[in-house]
Amino acid sequence: MSATIPDRHSEQPGRIMSGEIVEQPAVLRRILDEGGPKIREIAEAVAAKKPRFVLLTARGTSDNAALYAKYLLEVRLGIPCGLTSMSTTTAYGAQPDLTDVLVITVSQSGGSPDLVASTKAAREAGAITLAVTNNAESELAAVSEFHIDVLAGPEKALPATKTYTAELLSLYLFVEGLRGGDGAAAAALPDLAQRILARGAEVKQLAGRYRFAERMVLTSRGYGYPTAKEAALKLMETSYIPALSYSGADLLHGPLAMIDAISPVIAIVTDGKGGEALQPVLERLRGRGADLVVIGDEAEVAKASAGFALPTDGVPEELQPILEILPLQLLAYEVTIARGQDPDAPRALAKVTETR
Amino acid sequence: MSATIPDRHSEQPGRIMSGEIVEQPAVLRRILDEGGPKIREIAEAVAAKKPRFVLLTARGTSDNAALYAKYLLEVRLGIPCGLTSMSTTTAYGAQPDLTDVLVITVSQSGGSPDLVASTKAAREAGAITLAVTNNAESELAAVSEFHIDVLAGPEKALPATKTYTAELLSLYLFVEGLRGGDGAAAAALPDLAQRILARGAEVKQLAGRYRFAERMVLTSRGYGYPTAKEAALKLMETSYIPALSYSGADLLHGPLAMIDAISPVIAIVTDGKGGEALQPVLERLRGRGADLVVIGDEAEVAKASAGFALPTDGVPEELQPILEILPLQLLAYEVTIARGQDPDAPRALAKVTETR
Description:
Chain A is α/β, with parallel strands linked by helices. Chain A has two domains: 15-188, 3-Layer(aba) Sandwich (Rossmann fold); 199-338, Glucose-6-phosphate isomerase like protein, domain 1 (Rossmann fold). The first copy, chain A, is built from 14 helices and ten strands. Chain A has helices at 15-22, 24-48, 60-77, 87-90, 113-124, 139-143, 162-178, 189-197, 200-210, 225-239, 248-251, 273-287, 298-303, 321-338, and strands at 53-57, 81-83, 101-107, 128-133, 146-149, 216-220, 243-247, 265-269, 292-296, 306-309. In chain A, the strands form two sheets. In chain A, strands 2-1-3-4-5 form a five-stranded parallel sheet, sandwiched between helices. In chain A, strands 7-6-8-9-10 form a five-stranded parallel sheet, sandwiched between helices. In chain A, strand 1, helix 3 (60-77) and strand 2 form a beta-alpha-beta unit. Chain A is globular, with a radius of gyration of 20 Å. The relative contact order of chain A is 0.16. Chains A and B meet through helix 3, strand 2, helix 4, helix 10 and helix 11 of A and helix 3, strand 2, helix 4, helix 10 and helix 11 of B.
């Protein structure tokens, strides 16, 4: 099932993870400068095939990037999408008719045998196949009709950070390309990411709130929802704090009962329609006396128990997820350090998870 | 956002929920006897329209039923499916082209304004629309082209139980109808459900293990995965224990780090390919010294720390979810009673959640 786990205890705990977090502005710039034209070419070739449906396949962090792409495809392109339940093909041998279906498989390593197998099967079933990976030499890239390299450079930390934002930006540029756009709105991201990552001291202070937390809840709506899921995953795999994530609407269907004054809630409030749709949920949470931390707009942060104001000046809502996750990656790192653990050495995990 | 919360504190805590749990064998029998022919008719009418893609829309417990239907549709019919991200239409006004798309909306009450609005929008966008509700007089039933009544009778408890299994069986019969089958394999379910629900004493003993649990993890693969999600929701909304659910494969991508000897894991091991695919995950969990409770096959239960053996004699894997959830509903009830709370009165919840 798993590869041997290398000894990742570095002299300075979290050195590998923090090093990759701060690489992100440079990675985003590389994608815009070097990756953009190639992504646009691929998007044009895919658009010419006129896909009617999109299926997205991924696991872990890449699954959260796939969910982001689902929102983009549905909202900006009006193409119905689904996230694959992979066991339907790998365990049950389902053979769906995939004519006119674009199957996008997202994977940092491009090496998971189940993703390779399901992509192969999709191609044989008539799908247009696109792999989005951080390894152009990977088997997944080889078996797919199209491949986008997210150009993040080798990722050595077990908790994925720079490949997540690289996947988001690459998928954004791809979807913009499908609709004939140039993705120019993304140009501001590298500098904004730099400014956010320079505010580590603020996040460190925020981390103090969670040092002793026994659980956490993350919530958002719309474009911010993948951020809530990815932040929960990051917190769990580094600090081991059980972190539950819900879309704001789902939170009201049951899990709200679990929230009390000792359960901190992190809300990602995008500056746009998702943030607006989250307002009634925030009201309910405040009404229940929840400890509410807001990542987002300054005015929203001011109304919460604490937060991190995002400089989204002019960045459209659909690009904000690339910025929102940055303070949350730092938070996962800082909480883990505060708890005396090493973010570079999550117990029990291997970099390439060989699920079948 | 929410209706006024009625005073549900009954004299005997959990009386309403437990009353509805034990109704399930009768509800299943009613669906088979009275609902079956009508469901088959609807399935034939939908099949004649030759849908190429299915989108499922639901929230909370019904969303778990929708996920079950997604597995059925993909595995048994080979139709690609997606679960709707509802905010794409309600918040962002996405207008996907839904020609040849079957949109199935599942809702106990049929009254959530967002589900009504998204179903209307889908119908206008060319979709074949099917509502699956427990209220034939509901607005959702009215705005949909087709409607399946799950015939569970009024559900008064806030934690949904009998409408969940009623939704599962109705969706199963619908999918069987789509493929021209008669769903005869389901005939054994009412009696088996009765036998399982008679074993309350066993579940009560199991509940003792979790009385002081600070968190729980539920896992499964394939057809059992919706059961893991629904059991987690049930535990959270009644006992407030944070319960995380993962497909076995996803568990290995990060959250595994969180599992230690004090984090109980409940694994739903179906008797079939899903259970086989879960084996490597069970091995990893045993290797990490996790407290592992198995719901499923007797031999699997024997290898675990504890469990509940399911009498699945001859019931095909795709029908087992209708049985698997029963001991877990009882468990949520018993743990809540053991913790001195009232399962009939989850704080902060209303029966019809009016998300928009």
